[in-house]
Request: fold
Amino acid sequence: MMHRVANILPPSTRSGELTPQRRTTRRVSSTDLIEMLTPRLAVGICLNVSEGGLRVAVDAALHPGEACRIRRHVATGPAIENYLVVWSREVSDGWIAGLARDDVH
Reply:
């Protein structure tokens, strides 16, 4: 029976190996307020933080591939950071997006 269940799971969950589709760093919950400075003005909240980026909820549309400049209000004060939108999804009261660190801009 277990063999049949394993056959219907995606390959990345069968072996427990980390693949490009699986997160390699731990996420930490967050409630940091954020201000989107580019590509458009928006406000929102950071939902979680990882070594590679953020998951955010904002009140304006974000689209994969866009470069974002964000002011994130952390415990030590405001920090200006650069990210690329990896994915986004419209929800009833705004947008949820995954942002990857972009240290180039």
About this structure: The chain has one domain: 25-101.
